Amino acid sequence: MSGKSCAVLLIGADTAGREWINYEIVKAWDARKGVFGVYVHNLKDANTNQSTRGSNPFDNITMGTAGPKLSTKVRAYDPPGSDSTEVYAYIENNLGDWVDAAIAIRGSC
Question: Where are the domains of the chain?
């Protein structure tokens, strides 16, 4: 993450609660980087299957020892669309704005 201003988490069915995912989220947040997530359940895999929507991984992390959940500050975007083409297009059209918003949010916290 050195030299980066934002961490983007791709949220799959089994992302939330994984030790290394939590570690990277906390590391980015503590380094004052913007942080946000994008659900990827609507994207098809190589076998054209879609997965189920995962839980919000930012719900598993608190700010400070007894603070609120990180999900109260960090956004997790769920792109609309019924096929991969629509979902990819939505992500492409919004990614820059999401990065800017995450950096601004982190700067205000």
Answer: 6-108
